[in-house]
Design brief:
6-stranded mixed sheet, 16 helices, alpha/beta
Length: 556
């Protein structure tokens, strides 16, 4: 087996069976212009028509032809070259056509099509890890707390659509909260003391999302967002006991704009507590390997939703630690001997209290019984009476299907944030802030990445990641000092559908490589240390920033 393994990150398919080639963009590609009855006539009139594989830079979703072409390309080029697949949600079409309102059955149908497209390529031999997006629920963005009848229906229907993609021993957890763990790869011949493989944690980011008006933040002790943070900590402890590394995947990127404040900082605190120490890059002795004493390592945090090709830092801020303790109890009152754990972290570690019960009755249970959530959450609970940042109601704009806050006074708190026109500049400012704070603050950092989408918000694209699966036999070889599981590189593949739509025959090669990370940025791997170096390079080079901006939007 080679030292380097590969996996696919695919996201945001947004399958739309109602897409019609030659239709109008303003109808969400569902209807032809009024004066014509077929797509052929539309091709020669004055309208900007849509092609059979979709149309870039428009608000239309993915036609079946695009999904089929993607599946066929993966089958021909990657079916036997990948170790596992990360699929970060949003397979339902957008609900942007007022003449054809989206139903939950259509969302499930979109997921069925996406599952078939992936399983026809990878079958049961390559693990596929699915995830819930904000358009895999109805209404979009809104998901009630565990135990509520709509949440139970959502999780049950998605588990059926995803067939056997959720492990049986994780089914009870998924039916409860929409998240689960799945082993995706075992390393080849790890050394004594090294981790033995990778487990993926599929997160339900909708319980942290500002736009979800059905729940609040992560301060209340019975918050569903806090329960998921506790589950992540439990899974980290479980991974340590099993000597495994972790990959975290979700739909909505964790940042201060997307997540409620206590949820963002709770997530950052939980994840960065287990980021491993930097590798010993200057070691020459073959007996010296990377320091893995801080296992389990979170080797990747992979997200979708935004359709762009970017990365960001995530890190904790000490001032938020006290705000995550809603009871306001000090260490002594919690029975602590002066450690820095929060009350809910202690409950997870010691398996006591509310989260101790959840570990025993849900997270460690394998039965798919769905009645147990009512023991922890009452139906129709009024979260706004107990949360740190109250929910706000939203309405959907018929013309654009974007979320518009009803109350202007609360829009700055809970309204979901769209990508600003200066999105790249905002990222660069964040990179600069991280570098200015220096090495001490950088110890509490993680890296999150957004992969581009299949839906042609810009152009259809996906990422192939390369990671260290087997340690090289000699210290003179590349990557000797890196921990197993470290991400090494990635390739972005894109489909130029504006050109492909003009072909009369089916294209022989639908996707082509847009770029390789290491070729553009001249770095050896995707470790935290490399991302920090990358940030320095971007801030010091105008030409590199121009390239970064172009690649963020896939050259469009």
């Amino acid at each position: 087996m080679k030292s380097v393994g590969r996996f696919l990150h695919i996201t945001d398919m947004h399958v739309d069976p109602g897409y019609k080639p030659g239709s109008t963009i303003y109808s969400q590609c569902h209807r032809y212009p009024p004066h014509t009855a077929n797509s052929a006539a539309t091709m020669s009139d004055g309208h900007k028509h849509t092609g059979r594989f979709g149309i870039p830079l428009a608000k239309c979703d993915s036609p079946i032809a695009l999904i089929n072409a993607t599946s066929k390309y993966l089958q021909s080029n990657w079916a036997d070259k990948l170790d596992f697949v990360i699929w970060t949600g949003d397979s339902g079409r957008h609900d942007g056509d007022p003449e054809q309102p989206r139903t939950f059955d259509q969302i499930i149908a979109g997921n069925n099509i996406a599952v078939h497209a992936l399983q026809s390529v990878f079958g049961d031999s390559i693990p596929v890890v699915p995830n819930i997006g904000n358009n895999d629920i109805s209404p979009h963005n809104e998901l009630a707390a565990p135990g509520h009848k709509t949440a139970r229906k959502t999780f049950e229907q998605l588990s059926h659509a995803w067939q056997n993609l959720v492990p049986k021993d994780q089914l009870r957890t998924f039916l409860y909260g929409g998240y689960f763990a799945k082993d995706v790869v075992d390393y080849d011949s790890p050394r004594a003391g090294e981790s033995t493989g990778i487990t993926a944690l599929s997160l339900n980011t909708i319980y942290w999302y500002r736009a979800n008006a059905k729940v609040g933040g992560c301060r209340a002790k019975d918050s569903p967002g806090l329960a998921q943070l506790a589950w992540i900590r439990y899974q980290m402890r479980r991974a340590r006991a099993r000597n495994r590394d972790l990959i975290l995947l979700g739909h909505v990127l964790p940042n201060r704009d997307n997540y409620r404040p206590t949820c963002y900082h709770g997530y950052a605190r939980t994840v960065t507590q287990v980021v491993p120490a930097p590798a010993l890059r200057n070691a020459s002795d073959e007996s010296v390997i990377a320091d893995e004493s801080d296992m389990p390592a979170v080797h990747a945090q992979l997200f979708g939703h935004s359709n762009v090709d970017v990365w960001a830092f995530v890190g904790q801020e000490a001032k938020w630690i006290s705000s995550l303790d809603p009871l306001g109890l000090g260490d002594q009152q919690n029975g602590s001997m002066g450690d820095n754990r929060l009350w809910w972290e202690r409950q997870v570690d010691e398996e006591t209290g509310r989260f101790g019960k959840m570990i025993r009755n849900i997270w460690e249970a394998t039965s798919p019984d769905t009645t147990s959530p009512s023991d922890f959450y009452a139906d129709e609970r009024l979260w706004e009476n107990m949360e740190d940042d109250p929910p706000v109601q939203f309405s959907a704009s018929e013309s654009s299907a974007e979320i518009v806050p009803i109350s202007e006074t609360t829009s700055n708190i809970s309204a979901p944030q769209r990508l600003p026109s200066d999105f790249v500049e905002t990222l660069l400012k964040e990179y600069k802030q991280v570098l200015v704070k220096g090495p001490e603050s950088q110890q509490n950092l993680g890296v999150t990445t957004i992969s581009p989408s299949i839906v042609p918000k810009y152009v259809p694209a996906f990422r192939i990641f390369h990671y260290l699966r087997k340690r090289p036999e000699s210290s003179k070889q590349r990557w000797w000092q890196l921990p197993l599981g470290t991400l090494l590189d990635y390739d972005v593949y894109w489909a130029d559908i504006a050109r492909l739509n003009k072909l009369k025959q089916n294209p022989t090669k639908f996707f082509t490589k847009l770029y390789r990370f290491s070729d553009v940025y001249k770095l050896d791997d995707l470790s935290l240390d490399s991302y920090l170096k990358w940030a320095e390079k971007l801030l010091s080079s105008k030409s590199l920033r121009k390239k970064f901006r172009s690649l963020t939007y896939l050259g469009t």
